[in-house]
Amino acid sequence: MTNEQWEKLLAVMGGEIFDPLPVGFIIDSPWLPGWAGISTLDYYASDDKWLAANLKAVRTFPEIMFLPGFWSEFGMCTEPSAFGTKCRWAEQDLPFAEKILKTIEGVSGLEKLNVRTDGLLPFVVRRLELHRKAIEEAGHSLRFAVSRGPLNIASFLLGTTEFLMAIRTNPDETHQLLTLITNFIVAWLQYQKECLPSIEGIFVLDDIVGFLGEEDLRSAALPYLQRVFGCLDVPVRFFHNDAQGRVCAKFLSEIGINLFNFSFEHSLEEMRQWAGPNVTLLGNIPPRDVLAQGTPAEVAASVRAALEPLSDRSRIILSCGGGMPPGVPSENVQAVLLSRA
Asked: Are 125 and 72 in contact (CB under 8 A)?
């Protein structure tokens, strides 16, 4: 993000209203390689192509806040790789992290991790260190420490169905697993900040939170997310959950979250009522069916439908309900900018 964009983000989160509304998108490997004309594997394997794709995005759309900005990642394999999972790679598809726990009881065999040495983590940080000068010469700064959330990582290590069942059937082992993962995330976010002092925000992604009822959320998500979002003293604490978002909405402020990206199935007005007045909302255009597959006219209509019911446009950043999906054409991104008045 540029310094101007960062200051605008802080102003929006402080309640200042801008006309037109600011636009922000979460962009990473599902969208950037295809849009930039390279393979997904090349995007991961070549630091130069990774940098070029990100620079192309910020130069093509200078008005847009791309979040987290120059995201150094290896898809869903980034964090699970540190635990020893087998990562499977393809030329054009996203990588896949195979689970390493056959049962929840296997958690006792997991060892404490070293975020400085394990898995793909050193490559994530070194990529940013090597290209920090080029990023800053382009007028941008690295602002966010990023991680998948504790439940998300647990679901990769054990399997989604198995993990959700274990919350009820094996609560002790589940909390042991979540404690281990949360300790890892805290160390991982703190290490990113140590290596990159310009970081002033936390960005955590965890869709599995949306699969919980309130009782399970209180026991299996709330305390761990509070630790994660409290591990750095930063002004922006950004959470992405584009599964069911109502269950976590009323807990966002208690967790410490002040910027929230959620499912397009919830309107901005609904989420404002559920989350309260102090959480900045990032949304809420349908990502696949409209932003990726619709026409510019359909994108414009969706923007109007999202914004017209709002009685208060404070703490709103126009985006899609989730990360930028594959296949979004430039003309549809431009349509968002042109239709936000």
From this structure: yes
Give the tokens for residue 9. Answer: 């983000």
Distance between CA 91 and CA 100 in Å, rounded?
Answer: 24
Domain at 3-251: CATH code? 3.20.20.210
Q: Which contacts (CB < 8 Å, 24+ apart) does range 305-314 have?
A: 306/267, 306/268, 307/21, 307/268, 307/340, 309/267, 309/268, 309/269, 310/268, 310/269, 310/272, 311/269, 312/272, 313/17, 313/21, 314/12, 314/15, 314/16, 314/17, 314/277
Q: Are 81 and 97 in contact (CB under 8 A)?
A: yes
Tell me the pTM: 0.97
pLDDT in tens, the chain (341 residues): 999 999 999 999 999 999 999 999 999 999 999 999 999 999 999 999 999 999 999 999 999 999 999 999 999 999 999 999 999 999 999 999 999 999 999 999 998 899 999 999 999 999 999 999 999 999 999 999 999 999 999 999 999 999 999 999 999 999 999 999 999 999 999 999 999 999 999 999 999 999 999 999 999 999 999 999 999 999 999 999 999 999 999 999 999 999 999 999 999 999 999 999 999 999 999 999 999 999 999 999 999 999 999 989 999 999 999 999 999 999 999 999 999 87
CA distances from 200 to 10, 184, 196, 221 (A): 11, 20, 10, 24
- Nearest CA to 292 out of 21, 27, 37, 31 is that of 31
Please classify residue 7 by burial: count the beta carbons closer than 10 Å to its beta carbon, then call 0-12 exposed, 13-18 middle and 19+ buried: exposed
For the chain, domain boundaries: 3-251
| H helix or E strand, kind and range, residue 238 | strand 236-241
Rounded Cα distance between 148 and 135, Å, is 24
Q: Label the pairing between strands 259-262 and 144-148.
A: unpaired
Burial class of residue 238 (count of CB atoms within 10 Å of its CB; 0-12, 13-18, 19+): buried
